[in-house]
Design brief:
mainly alpha, single chain
Amino acid sequence: MPIRLPFSKLSLWQQSAFCCALLERMLPNYAMFSQAAEFGDVNVLRQQLDVLWQKLESSQKLKVNLDTQLGKLEEHIPDPEAFDFFGVFPALDVCMAMISTLQAIDSKDAEEFSNVSRLSENSVSYYVELLLLEEFGELQDVSQQDIKQYPLMQWEIATQNELFDFLKNSPENKATCKQAKDMVLEEGISNLGIEIG
């Protein structure tokens, strides 16, 4: 069921902007987990994402030190075995997506960029599966089709496709960054439907 977008049709800049926009939608999931679990600092991830946007918006070549950024992030990555509630998984997905984005921008590896798309989608897919299990009760299996047809999953697929099409045909500048951000945040909720504070 994965969303398969042809990332090779996007420039490095467009792929980077795509990942940053997806991270904007995912970040509130980390914030909510961090607050509930009293673990990690969402501001560290927020600052890293802001630096990546600045790099995209700036005509000067802004250098991002990969090792420094990964080092800063490391202590804020939650261990799923240390927390016994669902929120740890989307929070971990946010961290993994940030790592993939940082590594992709550094290595220019299209596989790392597509990894961010998958992480966002997996967060939604897993959450929807839990919602459906609650709805159906234990008596019925949840199929991939059930997940795909769920409104939140449909929204995730539509958002990624819309963002991809928008960036594919847009100039590589600050205005495009702003439009991409506005596009993914206009509903005021994260990819899991969590309100953005």
